[in-house]
Amino acid sequence: MDQSPPGPPSIDVAEILRTRAGETTALHERYLNRQMVRVLGALGFDRTWVGAEGAHLIDDAGERYLDLLGGFGVYGLGRNPPAVRAQLERVLEAGTASLPQIGLTLLPGVLAEELIRRAPAPLDAVLLTNSGAESVEGAIKLARAATGRPRIVYCESAFHGLTLGALSVNGNAEFRDRFGPLLPGCDQIPFGDLDALRRELARDDVAAFLVEPVQGKGVHIPPPSFLPEAQELCRRHGTLFALDEVQTGLGRTGRFLALEHWGLEPDLLLLSKALSGGYVPVGAILASRRVFDGVFDTMERSVAHGSTFGQNDLAAAAALAALSELDDAGLVKRSRRLGDLLLELTRPLVVRHELVHEVRGMGLMWAIELGPPAGGGRRTWEFVERRQPGLLAQLLVVPLFRRHRILTQVAGHHLNVIKILPPLVISEDDLRAFVSALDQSLHRAAPLGRATAGLTLGMARRTLLGSRARSAAPPAETA
To answer: Which of 3.40.50.12780, 3.90.1640.10, 3.10.180.10, 3.90.1150.10 would CATH assign to domain 24-80+331-467?
Structure first.
């Protein structure tokens, strides 16, 4: 038998990052989502990112970009948070017996304990998952099994995820189209409409009402009485009250959980995104013991639901570190303070710019909505909206990125709403710089005809040049 020592490893990630950085776009176009590559090129967002720190992304030219997209809310602690990385390194050094599957390890239990310690009654049991969508899928199953009822009620414009079960309670046609038939028994009501909810619950066959406290798409905040009265209606009709805090949780709205703004006590609470610390996928379903024991009610049913990687030690360590850093750095209070400042700085834009219809937000979950200006600009607005709804929001998103190096997002399909989810570690100076850049971009966008034409021609030119470059390039296999 050959006893010679093993040779060097056949892969070195540091070497790949160093020698193949210029291949990023080509690899994505060849093996991943080529339509996303086209979108980024058309918008002028096709940068090669080589680093990230706190609230900033860094491109291959060494330029820093203020990241107000925050990985759709994943980077609550900022990018590459040292406190989370340190705990992951400790787990790797410890060589724990992660995922014995027919067995238990310590860290998932400690994580569950910490989540329940921070949650309201009656939540006292946890099912760990890998993502927000998986948490939604699990909540649908738990609600149906625990109540013996078939139906789930959700809201128009809700997101909740893109897997089949989550898509069945996604209130946006652009995501649902072409993927039917979806799960039966999922019915939609307008967000904030208590009368519609009352009618659905009166049938006494609804397992759960699933709702985001603040809707991520468009950053829609419900009327003050909606969520408390919805909870009461659910109690009255034996329906589980399920809150999707995948995006609003962990300090995003200026409270640890958004439900604290209304004093809610849900039967199911869904978490993910910022719980990961930005490193390892992690999610959680928090449930009342009544719901939990209604599903896992015998030893035979101990595996009625689960997730292969849900209880892995790396994910638990990342989540524990993220929770600890929220406390140690006072990030929840910081989110509340900076969110108040952001509204104070941006509300005057409604008066200053005809295009600005409304500014709204809770904590560091913020949006600005555009509307038609008066006079001749209204005709241009209506002309553009008939042909491409939501295009005018790009009048702000594109120049904010290209001119000011600030990454934001349009808040939903066909919406003239721009949304930001900045890391909770963002500095006050960076927030003020964003508001200044936004003000300048709104001023430049005021002559709608010229601004729209410039944006449209620029996007078309970049798309055409990108197509020519791709057609002229050698195939990926021989490049």
So the answer is: 3.90.1150.10
